[in-house]
Amino acid sequence: MNDSIPQVQIDSLFSAEEIAERTMALAQEIRRAGFTDNVLVVAVLKGSFVFAADLIRALHHANISPLVDFISLSSYRAGTASSGKVTVLRDLETDVAGRDVLLVDDILESGRTLAYAKALIANRGARRVATAVLLEKPGKRAESFEAEFVGFLCPDKFVVGYGMDMGHHFRELPFIGMVVGAD
Ligand code: IMP
Ligand code: MG
Predict the structure, then answer these.
(1) What residues contact residue 166 under an 8 Å CB cut-off, 6+ apart?
(2) Which ligand is nearest to the CA of 73?
(3) Sign, CA torsion 122/65/42/11
(4) What dihedral angle (degrees, nearest 10) is formed by the CA atoms of 179, 49, 51, 87?
(5) What global pTM score does this model have?
(6) pLDDT in tens, 117-152
(7) Which pLDDT score is estimated for 78?
(8) Beta bridge partners of 152
């Protein structure tokens, strides 16, 4: 792994305050869609871990007490370009049969990652599988896939922060930033 911090300019796209407000509203949408204490939140690692951590606390404020598990999928390598193929790096520990599952991811782009995860969980007998994404990049879909809950629409730029990385860096930023000069 190359540990040097990329020397790039990062412009704020969504502030910590905007993210917090939108996350609370998303939890209410999720409750209105009929999710209750039976829900299993599945965070797709690594990029969604900050969003998932805030979303489960927002769900608490919406009176939902979820179970939480993690799956690690890889369709991206350490750079900024997609390799196109999805593999399971770390599987769920929870039996999803009969459960309502809320998949949580950072960005819906080609849709390959989430289409793969949704099919995997549905094939294991989940009763319902819905998806919450922090960001959606419109017009980039390779698979027909719709997320039921979307935080923000995102310009077709490379973004970092709030859990999302560029070459393993910048996950710690409390805001969502746009990398200027990269695609
Ligand atoms: P896709 O929808 O299968 O193309 O994969 C989307 C995944 O690629 C996201 O969950 C991120 O992990 C990663 N990704 C896509 N665009 C970006 C970006 O702008 N910044 C950081 N990660 C990204
Ligand atoms: Mg991801």
Answers:
(1) 6, 8, 80, 158, 160, 179, 182
(2) 2
(3) positive
(4) 70
(5) 0.93
(6) 999 999 999 999 999 999 999 888 888 899 999 999
(7) 45
(8) 135
Task: Please tell me the distance from the alpha carbon of residue 107 to that of residue 153, in angstroms, as a whole number.
Answer: 10
Query: H helices within 33-157, ranges in order?
Result: 49-61, 112-123
Q: List the chain residues with pLDDT less than 50.
A: 78
Residue with CA closest to ligand 1 atom 11: 107
Q: Is residue 109 in a domain?
A: yes
Atom of ligand 1 nearest to the CA of 142: 4
User: How distant is the alpha carbon of residue 182 from its chain centre?
Assistant: 21
Q: Which residues contact 140 (CB under 8 A, 6 or more apart)?
A: 109, 110, 156
- The DSSP symbol for 83 reads E
Residue 3 lies in a domain: no
Q: Does 100 sit in the ligand 1 pocket, CB within 6 Å?
A: no
**85 occurs within a structural domain:** yes
Q: Which domain holds residue 44?
A: 18-153
